[in-house]
Amino acid sequence: MQLKGRHLISPNDLTLDEIDGILRLAHDMRQNRRAYADSCRGSILGTLFYEPSTRTKLSFESAMLRLGGQVLGFADANTSAVAKGESIADTIRVLDGYADVVVMRHPKEGAPKLAARYARVPVINGGDGGHQHPTQTLTDLLTIDTYKGRLHGLRVAFCGDLKFGRTVHSLIETLARYPKAQFYLVSPEELVLPERLRQHLERSFRCEMIECRRLEEALPHVDVLYMTRIQRERFFNEADYQRLKNSYILDAEKMREAQPNMIVMHPLPRVNEIAYEVDKDDRAVYFPQAELGVYVRMSLISHLLGVNQ
Ligand code: NCD
């Protein structure tokens, strides 16, 4: 497995063996964190965030610092030369002289892919518009593997904004590559999975997909419930957002319908789609999930820089 020097724009850039290698190293980093504390000393991670982020940016920074490396970047494009009209191509050509690996989040789909064309160092997509979010997918896979012990043969419900949710798009397309995946797609009519993605899943993987409007239809049947927020910033008008924002709210009463060993995941941030009372339920793993994101990013950075293999 040779990931050194490669870009990560979509989870499809990785084979299942490569994903497995990243997860295995992440598990080990979690068990033996100290052993890796110096492994990226002298390397710099650049973070280019053109869109708000808490977990993705901070977990990448934490990952690099825990490996003994350093970080630089911006969290608000308005404080960088972008505000003066600099193009992505120019920004990346400069930044890749300042950093050894770069993570970019951008509201425009395809922006990190464009950056990768101009960069000499690995570019990681930290989320591009409503398109892809490959490192969240790696985080999600590590979480599922940790709690369910496998990635194949799972029944997974995706609930909320399946249209704009890039975490959903990346994860469903990746889980579909594992044998015997079965998906419940729970969303309002207006926020169903994009038709092209749905057709791709059906044609390429012959996945079983069951579309539901009510969460209760899916809940008793699944091993994993993947909740997402309704993405206000991607709506064209506020009235539509207001109408749809409370479509699904998972609470303690609904959790009674679920299997005792189901897990509830969420890429976070949550708005109000999971009631706070659910946090106390042992099946709620969204906070541990956010923490696992650090280990998977430590592993990814190491692989792209060609250390710890
Ligand atoms: C997600 C994102 O940015 O796509 N957050 C994250 O990275 N953990 C989900 C979201 O914003 O709803």
What does this structure look like?
With 309 residues, the chain is of the alpha/beta class. It folds into 2 domains: 11-133 and 293-305, 3-Layer(aba) Sandwich (Rossmann fold), CATH 3.40.50.1370; 134-289, Aspartate/ornithine carbamoyltransferase (Rossmann fold, 3-Layer(aba) Sandwich), CATH 3.40.50. It contains 11 helices and 9 strands. The strands form 2 sheets. A 5-stranded parallel sheet has the order 7-6-5-8-9. A 4-stranded parallel sheet has the order 2-1-3-4, with helices on both faces. Helix 2 (55-66) links the parallel strand 1 (44-49) and strand 2. It starts with 15 loop residues before the first helix and ends with a helix. The mean pLDDT is 95. N-carbamoyl-L-aspartate is lined by residues 55-56, 127, 133, 136, 166-167, 228-229, 231, 267-268.
How do you describe this structure in short?
The protein is of the alpha/beta class. The protein contains 11 helices and 9 strands.
